[in-house]
Amino acid sequence: MRGPRPAHAAGPAFPMRLTVPVLLLIVLVAAGSAPAAQTSNATLNASINSAARLSLSSAALTFPDADPDTSPSIQAAQGPITVTAKARTSPNGTVTLTVRATDELRSGLNTIPASNITWVASGAGFTNGTLSATTAQPIATWSGSGERTGAHTFFFRNLWSYATGTYTLTMVYTLSAA
Amino acid sequence: MRRLTPLLAFLFLLPSPALAQKLELAVSLSPAIITFSSGDPDTVPLLTAPPLQLTYRIRGNGNSPWSLTVLAAGDLIAGASRIDISNVTWVATPAPPFQNGTLSKTVPQRIASGTGNVNPDSIGSISFRLANSWTYDLGSYTQTILFTLSAP
């Protein structure tokens, strides 16, 4: 049988019966907080450099002979030439496609100015134009990287003044990005 | 206190995984930099980086499942230009536990999973690939990806 607690037997600042469960709780919580995940970082790097690729549906154009009175303008036998231009450039950089004749139309000693060849274009960014043997003429202009497709149909100005012969010239297409 | 002693002894004798066996997870990468070299999209439609070696270890996991995920911190960025991170895929071996996938910047994507422990270290090989396109702006793109090995 217990009597009243003497005054000098007052307990510590906190009762012992509370201490053990609290310590146990701390131990269990600490043990349960073990890391359940580990991480590691990596860095992705990608270099995107300039590149361009141009393709034409036909590498040759032929204008058949015709009476200038009935056919003052002769369309190329191949019909529309499809142009596919692919280019990478800086954001909003300009992509330009030009064409230039390396010489006038020539048949032996006879010549016909390259400017007698014109084209009509279709497709976003493509423009009509006239061939030149001295200055590259713009065919198309775009902004930014991408792949574009258009077409241009060539015409030959037919005149009675031409000397007979088989005339040829070479056209150089240039795709550039700035 | 005397009344609590048997209870304490009982509690400490309980088979607690957290107390009996400490969970240890480790994951490391080599190299930690993954580089895609530029190429013509017509001839190189997929830019492939050299394989990444991933070393991982799992101890104290009992028969519980574990998973390894990867999450991108964002798109590939070069100044104002971006390449959507979903253009980056990976091929991982051995399978299982590794699996192929596509990077995401919003949802961690599982790259490997299993159950139990992996001890000693195990190694996986991961080849990242970037879908090449003419529409990309010129630039040096970069982004961080985070691998997370986790067990419940």
Q: What this model shows, in words?
A:
The complex is a heterodimer of chains A (178) and B (152). Chain A is mainly β and 178 residues long. Chain A is elongated and about 90 Å long. In chain A, the strands form three sheets. In chain A, strands 2, 3, 4, 8, 9 and 11 form a six-stranded antiparallel sheet that branches. Chain A has a three-stranded antiparallel sheet with strand order 10-5-12, with no helix packed on it. Chain A is built from one helix and twelve strands; from the N terminus they run αββββββββββββ. Residues 1-35 of chain A have low confidence and may be disordered. With 152 residues, chain B is mostly beta strands. Chain B has helices at 4-13, 17-20; strands at residues 24-30, 33-36, 46-48, 52-59, 65-72, 76-78, 81-83, 88-93, 101-102, 109-115, 118-131, 139-150. The interface between A and B is large, with 38 and 55 residues. Strand 1 of chain A pairs parallel with strand 2 (33-36) of chain B.
Feature tags:
heterodimer, A: 178 residues, Immunoglobulin-like, six-stranded antiparallel sheet, three-stranded antiparallel sheet, 12 strands, B: Immunoglobulin-like, 2 helices, 51% strand, elongated
Helices, strands, pairings?
The complex is a heterodimer of chains A (178) and B (152).
Chain A: H1 16-32, E1 37-48, E2 51-56, E3 73-75, E4 81-88, E5 94-101, E6 105-107, E7 110-112, E8 117-122, E9 129-130, E10 137-143, E11 146-157, E12 171-177
Antiparallel strand pairs in A: 2-4, 3-11, 4-11, 5-10, 5-12, 6-7, 8-9, 8-11
Chain B: H1 4-13, H2 17-20, E1 24-30, E2 33-36, E3 46-48, E4 52-59, E5 65-72, E6 76-78, E7 81-83, E8 88-93, E9 101-102, E10 109-115, E11 118-131, E12 139-150
Largest interface: A-B, 38 and 55 residues
* Quaternary structure type: heterodimer
For the record, give the distance between the C-alpha atoms at the N and C termini of chain B, rounded to a whole number: 36 Å
| DSSP E strands of chain B, number | 12
Low-confidence stretches of chain A: 1-35
**CATH C-level class of chain B:** Mainly Beta
Please identify the top-level CATH class of chain A: Mainly Beta
Count up the domains of chain B. 1
